[in-house]
């Protein structure tokens, strides 16, 4: 559980992974042209470029979605670190210290009852 982060940061992580994966696919596809693999290399480059571009567009959509959700989140102050953090849903984690937060007492994991 120590690798968990807030929901907004999880969406941003997926956007970053799609961006890096798309660029990696485009670079791998470029090897077919750089190393002069003939017609097969050009076809491979085209296919990998298209798949990489689709991954980049998907990352743009994920970043846009995370940004739109981020504008409508509830900003609360973390009881552990005292920093303002954004909260999505009924429970979330602090963006800084990863403490589990909840606005609803029945969903609060730190409650004694």
Automatic annotation (TrEMBL):
Domain of life per record: Bacteria
Stored InterPro entries: UPF0295
Entry's transmembrane regions: 12-37, 43-66
UniProt keyword terms in alphabetical order: Cell membrane, Membrane, Transmembrane, Transmembrane helix
Membrane as UniProt keyword: yes
Transmembrane helix recorded as keyword: yes
Short name of any one Pfam family annotated for the protein: DUF2614
Name this polypeptide is given: Zinc-ribbon containing domain-containing protein
Species the sequence originates in: Paenibacillus baimaensis
Source species taxonomy: Bacteria, Bacillati, Bacillota, Bacilli, Bacillales
């Amino acid at each position: 559980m120590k690798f968990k982060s807030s929901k907004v940061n999880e969406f941003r992580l997926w956007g970053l992974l799609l961006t890096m994966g798309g660029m990696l696919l485009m670079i791998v596809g470029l090897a077919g042209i750089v190393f002069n693999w003939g017609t097969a290399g050009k076809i491979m480059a085209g296919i990998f470029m298209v798949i990489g571009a689709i991954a980049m567009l998907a990352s743009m959509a994920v970043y846009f979605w995370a940004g739109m959700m981020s504008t409508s989140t509830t900003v609360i102050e973390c009881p552990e670190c005292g920093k303002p953090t954004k909260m999505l849903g009924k429970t979330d984690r602090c963006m800084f210290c990863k403490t589990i937060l909840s606005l609803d007492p029945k969903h609060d994991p730190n409650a004694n009852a």
